[in-house]
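Q: Structure for this?
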Amino acid sequence: MHIVVCIKQVPDTAEVRIDPETNTLIREGVPSIINPFDENAIEAALQLQEEHGGKVTVITMGPPQAEEALRQALAMGCDEAILISDRACAGSDTLATSYILSQAIEKIGDYDLIICGKQAFDGDTGQVGPGIAEHLGVPQATYALDVEVEGGKMQVKRLLAGRFETVAMRLPALITADKHMNVPRHAGLRGVMQARKKEITTWSAADIGVEPEQCGLAGSPTTVVEIFPPQRSHTGERLEGEAREVARQLFAKLRENKVV
Amino acid sequence: MDIRVDPEKCTGCQLCVKACPYAAVEMQGDIATITAACTLCGACVSVCPVGAIIREMPDVAEIDTSNYQGVWVIAELDEDRLAGVTLELLGKGRELADALETPLSLVVLGNGVGELVTPAGEYGADRVYLVGDPVLEQYRTGPYTDVIAGLINKYQPEIVLIGATEQGRDLAPRLAVRLETGLTADCTGLDIDSEARLLVQTRPAFGGSIMARIITRNHRPQMATVRPRVMRRAEPQPGREAGLVEIPVKLNEESVLTRIVEIARDQSSQAVNLQDADIIVSGGRGLKKPENFALVQELAEVLGGVVGASRPTVDEGWIPAYHQVGQTGRTVQPKLYIACGISGAVQHLAGMAGADCIVAINSDPNAPIFGVAHYAVVGDLFEIVPALTEIAREELEGD
Ligand SMILES: Cc1cc2nc3c(=O)[nH]c(=O)nc-3n(C[C@H](O)[C@H](O)[C@H](O)COP(=O)(O)OP(=O)(O)OC[C@H]3O[C@@H](n4cnc5c(N)ncnc54)[C@H](O)[C@@H]3O)c2cc1C
Ligand SMILES: Nc1ncnc2c1ncn2[C@@H]1O[C@H](COP(=O)(O)O)[C@@H](O)[C@H]1O
C-alpha cells in the first residue's frame, strides 16, 4: 500500500513573540520543528507499512528550508520526500493549501491512504486535512486513534469528546492523526545517515500544474487584517496565609461567583 | 455557477442518480441529466467514477455579494437536543443578524428532529431549515456536506456559523472547499463591520500566543467555526416562534462512503469529557509524584468536576493523555478551572485561559499561571488543596 503523509514545518510555538511596534510575528531565531501531530502521522504510516508493506511518501509545502523537516521524516524511515516550493504558493490559506497539496497528491497518483496531523501548531486550524479529502473526493476520518487496514478497506477508531467512534470506509481515504494515536519513533543514527543520501524531489507550482490564481494570496479568500497580543494579564486577587483560612476565603469567593 | 454532464464520458452507471440528495439527476436514455431541482451540492461530482460531471464555480470577480443574505447557524445535536454550542451560536447569530438587519436561520439535519423547531425559535432563530432522513440519523461527513452545501447554494446566506467541536471541525472545512469560500477556524470573537457589511472574525493562533483578526472579503458565504463556551446563549423567550422550511431529500445509504461501526461512550477516564465540564481541577508537576493526583481527584469529586493535567505529568506517565489540557491536549472553557502546581507555560494557557474563573495554587509567586488567574493562591498545594477539599465537603454537604 502507498501512504502519503502531509507534514508541515512550524516554529516552536513556545518561542513565538510579537513585535509590539509592528504587531507582526518575530520569526528570526525561532527554531523550526515538524508539527508534533505530523510526527504522529508519520509514525502511523510507518506502522502500517511494517504490517502491510508498500511505500510511505512525505510531502510538504513550504519555503526551501522546509527540506529539513523532510530529511527528518526520511530519517524516521519514510521512503520518498517531495517539497513543493514556489513563491506563488506563499501566503496560502487553508483553501489554497489544501488545493495545492491535493493537486500534488493527484500527481503522485497511486495512493491508498493520506495521513495528516490533527492540526498544525502555528495556525491551529485542522482544516487542511479535510480540505485535501474534499478536493480529492475521498472519505475522511478525523481525530484518528487507531487504524486497521484490510484489503481495500479500513476501520478507524476516532477519539471524540467523551466517546470513541469506530468508522469503516473504503480506500483511498484520508485520516488526521491525534496525539494519542502513537508515540513517534526517534530517528536512529543509521536513519539520519541514510536520509542524508536520499534525493528530495522539488516541485514548483507549474510542475504540479496548479492554477496560479488559486494559489498563494490570490487564491486565499481569507485575509488576516490584524494581529495583536492576547489581553490576558488581569490582576487577579491574591490570597495568602494559613492554609485553612485561605481555603475558606477562596471557597466563599467561589460561592459568591456562583461557580460552585 | 453551473453543473453539467459530459455525454462523451457518462457510462450510464446511475451512481449519481442514487447519490443526489435532491433527486435532481435523471436518466435520459443512457445518459445522466441534471434537472432544474439541482442545488449544485456536488454529491454527484464526488460519486462519479469517470469524472463525467463537471461543476464550475464562478470567478471571484463575478460574485455579487449583495445576492447573499441572512445569517445561518448549522445545528449540532447532543442526544436529541440542540447542543450547547448551537444555543450559543444562536445567541451570537442573533446579534450579528440584527446588526445586518437580516434574518437568522438554524439548519437542522437528523432523523425525526421536528421538535427542535420550538427551542430554535425560543433561542432566537427566525427560521429553521429542517432536513429529516434516516441516513442523517448520525453525523457523517459525506451526507451532511452534500445536503448543507446544496442548501447554501440554494438560499445563499452571507454568514454561516458552525461550532468548533469535533463534528464542526470535521464538517466545516469540507463545506468551505466545496463552496470555494474562506473559513476561519476556532473563532473567539465575531463582529460586524457595518460599513463594509463584513464579518470580522477574531481567533487565537500559535497556541494562543497571538490573536488574529480575519475577514473574507470577496467570497460568500463568510464561514467560521466558533469555540464552544465563548459566546453567551440568549435567554430563551417562551412562545417566540421560528418559521419552518422543511427540505425534502432522498438519501441513499448505499451512496454513503462511511459506516459507523460502533460508538462507545466511555465512562472510564479514557475519553474524559473535558470540553463539556463545568469544573476542572488540574494538576501539574508541582504534585511531585503520580500518587498525589489523588489530591486533585478528590477535590474534583467533591466539587462535581473532572481532572485535568499539564503536559509533563502526561509525558511522565502520571496520568493518561486524555486528561491533558493545552495546545497538544484539549482546549477547555469551564466555569471554574483550578490549577494545582502548574506553572502556566504558554501552551498550557492556550488550552484554559478562556475559563470563566481561574484559581491558581502555586508556591512560586512569579509563576506565569498567576497572570491569568482570578484568584491567585500563593502557597503550598499540599496544604491548600486538602484544606479546600475539606471545606468544600463541609459546605456542599450542608446544601
Ligand atoms: C510544542 C509544545 C507543546 C506543548 N503543549 C502543551 C500542552 O498542550 N499542554 C501543556 O500543559 N503543556 C504543553 N507544553 C509544555 C509547556 O511548555 C510546559 O512545559 C508545561 O506546561 C509545564 O508543566 P507544569 O506546569 O506541570 O510543570 P513545571 O513547569 O515544572 O511547573 C510546576 C509548577 O508547580 C509549582 N510548584 C512546585 N511545588 C509546588 C507546591 N508544593 N505547591 C504549589 N506549587 C508548587 C512550581 O512553582 C511550578 O510553577 C508544550 C510544550 C511545547 C514545547
Ligand atoms: N504547508 C503544508 N504542507 C504539508 N502539509 C500541511 C501543510 N499545512 C498543513 N498541512 C497538513 O494539514 C494538517 C493540518 O494543518 P492546519 O489545517 O494548518 O492546522 C497538518 O497537520 C499537516 O498534516
